[in-house]
Amino acid sequence: MAVERAQKHLQYLDAFLARGFKTLHYLDQLRAQLSESETTGLFGLGPEKSGKLLAACVAETSLLSALYWVICAGALLGRNLSSEDSESLSQVLHLVRSCRKGAGFAPHPSHEPDLLSTVSAVQLSVILKRPEILEDGTGATRKYILSLQLPDGSFTSRIGSAEEGDCRFTFAALCGLSLLREPGAKDGGELEEVRDPAMVAEWLLNCQNLDGGFGCRPKGECESHAGHTFCCLAGLSLLQMIPRMTHRSRQRLIRWLGSRQCEGGGINGRPGKKADACYTWWTLASAKLILSSEGSSPSATLADLFDLPALEKFLEECASPDGGVAPHPGDDPDPFHTFFGLSGWSLAAHAQADASTKGWLQDMHASLVLPVGLTGTV
């Protein structure tokens, strides 16, 4: 049953990847047709083609990240794409390389480079065991990421964007830099190259709200959210500075995380919202990081905070019979929820000694968001 389940998800991912490359080719043809048309604007293509072009253009902004979700989900299910000699692998490598823009990577060959796409490229180079994706080595990519650090210690998304930090970009930068360590660097050591790591940690700590959760910016500017909470905790973990949290702050956070499970077993991202498969990862990974940090009760586990069998049942209801995971039971699956749903499912499974799902899902690294066996540096 477990093997069959894994195969269904892999088939879904393969089909999505094949459709994605077909769509990219189709988009190039539509653009060529549009540029040759005497009629200006999208309406020269007709309603059906213009609608497809608009949808594809919207998807371009997260194309490289979507590629990471699909490829990493496959690795989570035990696939070693790096050992294959396939058309899919060739297409993936070609697309990633074509997104290289100077020292960084763009989400699409026709876009400008940004932080999230650059980190996705680094993660893909680790999963595929292809450091040559980074062309001139890790130094230039590392320098690009560091160039996005702001005076207050946080990171922005791209050069020339609004000078405002965000915990999502700050975590992404720390994740990328951790994977780009120089050969021989101590695993888990401090990121000395980051300007004033203590200041970065303080910025992240200041994102915690009175309810215990974290927002995307400091001092209560944004409401608590499971995704932002994960980014702050994972960033602090990579800096080795979770112990800077006070005991009271830890306890408020643990209570906030534990209250995310809803009736029916699923987990939501903030109070009053319905359960969503992707929040399984953001919440459980956050809980794993805080529970395993110095100062937390050694007897506390994920099973103490959450009803994990009920959570797995919810995820089974979100999983399509044909593969893929949807945000809610009955919805259509998509790569984002498939990846984060399966990643959270992995944490739930590996937290239970007798979990039947443990065998078909690799264990996930709670701060690097990669299967544990793939967390070596580039």
Automatic annotation (TrEMBL):
> Required cofactors, per record?
Zn(2+)
- What family does this chain come from, according to its entry? Belongs to the protein prenyltransferase subunit beta family.
Domain (Prenyltransferase alpha-alpha toroid): residue spans on this chain: 58-352
UniProt key word Repeat: yes
Organism, as annotated = Symbiodinium natans
- Region forming the signal peptide: none
Q: Which UniProt keywords apply?
A: Metal-binding, Prenyltransferase, Repeat, Transferase, Zinc
An example of a GO molecular function for this protein is: metal ion binding
Which Gene Ontology cellular-component terms appear in the entry? Rab-protein geranylgeranyltransferase complex
Question: Which Gene3D superfamilies does its entry note?
Answer: 1.50.10.20
Q: Which Pfam families match?
A: Prenyltrans
SUPFAM superfamilies, from UniProt? Terpenoid cyclases/Protein prenyltransferases
Q: What protein does this entry describe?
A: Geranylgeranyl transferase type II subunit beta
Keyword Repeat included in the entry's annotation: yes
